[in-house]
């Protein structure tokens, strides 16, 4: 439980990543530094009749080292991503889960839409072949919480287990909520992050119909261009990012390598519109301000902001305004802000997971990832977006923003461990 000295301190001891630009943390880090573009034509299904025919797919994903053949065949892709990245993170952390500590280790994973492809395919099965031919795995494999459930089963964790479904803020909410679980003494360690596999005919058609997706089919490599004046929508992506969080003394007692410290978490709601943020970004700015207050940080202490940066007209200018409101105009203009979605696309509920991993990597390796495809300045987006090339920089404190449909706003703060 929290003591008179304050809540328990929480540190990061492990990372896992399966992304459109790398299927492990080191590959992902190298790709971020190099500004690798993960966007290309859709191969998961025939998209020839779709308005948008490209996405940021995970390439050459092989779960065989982590899952057996039966699990690979039955589990939905978002669950496979989640379990694989959780195992990667656990391996890096060196944490051993035993009968003695299993009830002190928990799982908290976010996903925006879960097994959407399974829902689509089984709906077609029922329509064409009748209800008796629907797979018995339909319900357990389509529900968004199953990534958390299967991860707990795979790792043997018996502590707090939960799933967050706050659209594109889900991964960050999961990390922030796991942070709170440890702070308040309900667990000593948590596996947390986000996972998503939304590249399906219905998802792509739905987002395109809502005019949220870029339809730059003739040039998909330059379609994801956050904060650029010529942006025309986001690029849908898939993948997963996981962190192992531990209470500080618990990690120190086993001589764990500490990567970073989680120091702040802020969350608000726009209460404004189903999909659009309010002009000016007030509630998003308040989430950032609450995060700073939670971490006892002054704006001048922030060295880097990993932006939500979706490459949509509404988000990018609203987030820019929110950053300036939360940090102060002068401070905001002096801090590098970048969107790794320019490389990975937008993983919806998985984005907060891989972006938290990117933020921790920035702290541990002393660099700021670039915003690639940033060519044409936008007067409404006038911050330092680290255009096109990574930047070497000693990053001591970094923020990571995530915003979701329904008006969910989340900000996380991390500090370099020294």
Automatic annotation (TrEMBL):
Show the SUPFAM superfamilies listed in the entry. Answer: Thiolase-like (SSF53901)
Query: Which pathway is it part of?
Result: Lipid metabolism; fatty acid biosynthesis
Q: Where is the Ketosynthase family 3 (KS3) domain?
A: 7-416
Could you provide one GO biological process annotation from this protein's UniProt record? fatty acid biosynthetic process
Q: Where is the active site?
A: 168 (for beta-ketoacyl synthase activity)
Molecular-function annotations in GO: 3-oxoacyl-[acyl-carrier-protein] synthase activity
Which keywords fit this entry according to its UniProt record?
Acyltransferase, Fatty acid biosynthesis, Fatty acid metabolism, Lipid biosynthesis, Lipid metabolism, Transferase
Function description: Involved in the type II fatty acid elongation cycle. Catalyzes the elongation of a wide range of acyl-ACP by the addition of two carbons from malonyl-ACP to an acyl acceptor. Can efficiently catalyze the conversion of palmitoleoyl-ACP (cis-hexadec-9-enoyl-ACP) to cis-vaccenoyl-ACP (cis-octadec-11-enoyl-ACP), an essential step in the thermal regulation of fatty acid composition.
Q: State the organism's lineage.
A: Bacteria, Bacillati, Cyanobacteriota, Cyanophyceae, Synechococcales
As its record notes, the protein acts as a catalyst of: a fatty acyl-[ACP] + malonyl-[ACP] + H(+) = a 3-oxoacyl-[ACP] + holo-[ACP] + CO2; (9Z)-hexadecenoyl-[ACP] + malonyl-[ACP] + H(+) = 3-oxo-(11Z)-octadecenoyl-[ACP] + holo-[ACP] + CO2
Which leading EC class covers this enzyme?
transferase
Q: What is its EC number?
A: 2.3.1.179
Q: What's the name of the protein?
A: 3-oxoacyl-[acyl-carrier-protein] synthase 2
Q: Which Gene3D superfamilies match?
A: 3.40.47.10
**Species of provenance:** Candidatus Synechococcus spongiarum
A single GO cellular-component term from the record reads: cytosol
